[in-house]
Amino acid sequence: MKQVAVVGAGIMGKGIAYAFAVSGYTVMLNDVNDQILQAAKTDIEQLLDRSYNNGFINEETISEAKMNMIYESDLESAVKHVNLVVEAVLEKIELKIDIFKKLDHYCKRSTILATNTSTMSPTEIAAQTNRPEKVVAMHFFNPVHKMKLIEVVRGLETSDETVDVIKEVSLSLGKEAVEVNELPGFVTSRMNCLIGNEAMNMLMEGVASAADIDKAMKLGLNHPMGPLELADLVGLDSRLRNMEYLYQTLGEKYRPSPLLTKYVKAGRLGKKSGIGFYDYR
After folding, report:
1. Residue 240's closest CA among 261, 219, 259?
2. Nearest 5°: phi and psi at 29?
3. Domain boundary among 181, 215, 247
4. 73-109 in b/e burial notation, b at 16+ Cβ within 10 A?
5. Can you give the residue ranges of the 3-hydroxyacyl-CoA dehydrogenase NAD binding domain (predicted)?
6. pLDDT for 215-244, tens place per residue?
7. Is 198 within the bounds of a domain?
8. Fewer CB within 10 Å, N- or C-terminus of the chain?
9. Angle subtended at Cα 158 by Cα 154 and Cα 161, rounded to the nearest 5 degrees
10. What is the DSSP-derived secondary structure letter of residue 27?
11. Is it true that the peptide bond before 143 is cis, omega within 30 degrees of 0?
12. 280 within some domain
């Protein structure tokens, strides 16, 4: 289990790849976009350097991690020899299903296929493969190198062995794992999306400013980050996709805030676009 592939080199994918690399795994990081893949390489190496300079990892770890990272734009080449694949692409069920069909074809029969989805059904994804017992959701949190939790989400046919292996892998990354039975949104996304959506509605209604809503949650309820700050970090387009999925599957209480929809239409996507609920320019 020391050879893994991460499919998707965006914010989550490069964070997951970093976590595996510093934990002694050989990591194949794949993305169809060469520019995104090259940017991920730069970001991972800069994070390794910062972690070393700040005393979080030693010289041996940073050297091994850089050697352990392999960047590959061809999906088949990236996954054909590994024992675990973690998919970390956009939260679009059609895209995930297409990738898992390819992974099922390219990977060894023994390879475990994990999705980093925060809301979507590992059962539905697994049903597109010939190995549903080896398909599981392995939900990391952003920023991956700081966040200690992994939700291990069991699909209808996920085997006990697969869940146990993913729990062991989670521990090897220095994370804590919680086991969740599949329902849309799992545990954290259901709660987080509700809180964030209500914060957006309060902002729209003029209850308080974005800064004061976030301060109230941090100082009054001991949240480490305010819900609007967190939405900006995740990406408002990603949050909207999650809300739309939860609205479709769980009903009215997850209807996306009109303000969230308006911001995404305006291109205000949070930190990655330079402006969201806060201005980062």
Report:
1. 261
2. -100, 120
3. 181
4. bebeebbeebbbbbbbbebeeeebbebbeebbebbee
5. 3-182
6. 999 999 999 899 999 999 989 999 999 899
7. yes
8. C
9. 105
10. E
11. yes
12. no
For the domain that residue 119 is a member of, what is the CATH number?
3.40.50.720
Q: For residue 281, is it within any domain?
A: no
164 & 203 share domain: no
Exposure of 208 by Cβ count < 10 A (0-12 exposed, 13-18 middle, 19+ buried)?
middle
Supply the range of the domain harboring residue 131: 3-181
Domains contained in the chain, number: 2
Residue at which a domain ends, from 161, 181, 201: 181
List strand residue ranges (DSSP E) for 94-187, in order: 112-115, 135-139, 149-154, 176-181
The CATH number of the domain holding residue 205 is: 1.10.1040.10
Query: Comparing C-alpha atoms, which of 94, 76, 98, 89 is closest to residue 118?
Result: 89
Whether residues 256 and 124 fall in one domain = no
> In this predicted model, what pLDDT tens digit does every residue of 41-80 receive, in sequence order?
999 999 999 999 999 999 999 999 999 999 999 999 999 9
User: Residue holding tokens 């989400």?
Assistant: 153
Residues whose CB is less than 8 angstroms from the CB of residue 66 and which lie 6 or more positions away in sequence, other chains included: 21, 45, 48
Number of CB atoms found within 10 A of residue 51's CB: 18
Give the list of residues 6+ apart from residue 52 with CB closer than 8 angstroms, or none.
58, 59, 61, 62
Q: What is the pTM of this model?
A: 0.82
Do 113 and 193 lie in one domain? The reply is no
φ, ψ for residue 234 (rounded to 5)?
A: -65, -35
Phi and psi at residue 147, in whole multiples of 5°?
-85, 135
